[in-house]
Amino acid sequence: NINRGDVGGTTIFSVMSGLAVQHNALNLSQGFPDFDGPAPLLERVQYYLTHGFNQYPPMTGVDSLRYAVRDKVADLYGAQVDGDTEVTISAGATEALFCAIAAVVRAGDEVIVFDPAYDSYAPVVALQGGKTIHIPLSAPDFKIDWNQVAAKLSDRTRLIIVNTPHNPTGAVCGEADIAALRTLAEHHDFYILADEVYEHIVFDGQAHLSMCRYPDLYERSFVVSSFGKTYHVTGWKVGYCVAPPDLSAEFRRIHQFVNFTVNTPVQLGLADFLHAHPEHHLQLPDFYQRKRDYFLTQLQGSKFTWQASAGTYFQLIDYGALSAELDVDLAKSWTEQLKLASIPISVFYQDQNCAPKSLLRFCFAKDTETCWHDCAANLTVF
Ligand code: PMP
Ligand code: GLN
């Protein structure tokens, strides 16, 4: 009973992680590191936890963290946003995605999403009474066909959800994508929800093209990110939304009744760490590119095929030369028999006729020494 983008069924991430535990498999399915966050960050959080910083913070997040996000956005993307009126701390990116969608989508509104689409978007749109318009992307490079987007725009189009770097494919938007989006925005009145949770994990010298860089796009955007990805602490569930004051006000109208706010000691610890260690996020591309390359080196000589991931900590592998089994079935049988869990890609497509049938996603946010030894051992069956 896997969720396929409607309201109901169980998210693939719970299904595969549950199976991995049940069968004692190496879990490269759900995306999370097998190493801890940086020690100075853990120390700062520990400090606040044990020094009386355990009551409600402001609804929008603590000042120091909002200002740290403001400064980062200025440094990296050249955007001057107001830390008081344009930055809101959320309970993970997931809550921010919910609040942004709930802030603007009303019954009958249309929301454009690109398949394979991260699985929390469509159910939230449906809960609002909105309708997702799915534009399928094709392997191996999953480039957006902007002519198709133009053709799908209508009077009811309220929102376009752009996820770059893209989960699950690892594709990233380039200058041509931004140019095409800007052209559409000149003539159509939609909002943009930019899911940029992997903003700091972009490879091969490419730049992350945040919506914050482009004033004409930013003025209609909710830009969402996650500290969980950046600081190797997915279990903390702290993220944020940067949006112009009018959109942030609408966002906060929802956020105040969904979560109200996010735990104090983690916010304060993150703020200190962001100020003291900007090198952490600047080194992430290198850090994860080495892990990607190591993983791909392990697969050299196998019958798998792939296109190297351009961003995120996920790599797609095509097993089509080895098996005709459907990805959902193969992901399950590999978990049970090979003790190796991954994520099937077809579940992220609304139209199964458009879905690639032999792609699995592997998370390479793992400690190479301990993890890849096991992984390679499992995969040498091929
Ligand atoms: N969007 C995408 C594309 C993701 O991969 C994730 C990570 N699970 C999220 C949103 C949610 O992030 P968080 O864990 O901070 O809620
Ligand atoms: N974003 C993570 C992934 O893609 C999982 C998030 C979740 O478990 N909901 O694997």
Description:
Trans-acting transcriptional regulator of RuBisCO genes (rbcL and rbcS) expression. This is Probable RuBisCO transcriptional regulator. Keywords: Aminotransferase, DNA-binding, Electron transport, Heme, Hydrolase, Iron, Metal-binding, Pyridoxal phosphate, Transcription, Transcription regulation, Transferase, Transport. The chain is of the alpha/beta class. The protein folds into two domains: 119 residues, Aspartate Aminotransferase, domain 1, CATH 3.90.1150; 241 residues, 3-Layer(aba) Sandwich (Aspartate Aminotransferase, domain 2), CATH 3.40.640. Helices cover 42% and strands 14% of the residues. A seven-stranded mixed beta sheet has the order 2-8-7-6-5-3-4, with helices on both faces. Strands 9-12-11 form a three-stranded antiparallel beta sheet. Helix 4 packs across helix 10. The relative contact order is 0.19. The mean pLDDT is 96. It binds 4'-deoxy-4'-aminopyridoxal-5'-phosphate (PMP) and glutamine. The site of 4'-deoxy-4'-aminopyridoxal-5'-phosphate has 14 residues, from helix 4. Glutamine binds next to loops.
Runs in which pLDDT lies below 50 for 5 or more consecutive residues are none
Query: What is the tally of helical segments?
Result: 14
Overall mean confidence score, pLDDT = 96
Instruction: Give the bound compounds.
Output: 4'-deoxy-4'-aminopyridoxal-5'-phosphate, glutamine
Short key terms for the protein model shown above:
globular; Aspartate Aminotransferase, domain 2; Aspartate Aminotransferase, domain 1; alpha/beta; 382 residues; 2 domains; single chain; 3-stranded antiparallel β-sheet; 12 strands; binds glutamine; binds 4'-deoxy-4'-aminopyridoxal-5'-phosphate; 7-stranded mixed β-sheet; Probable RuBisCO transcriptional regulator; 14 helices
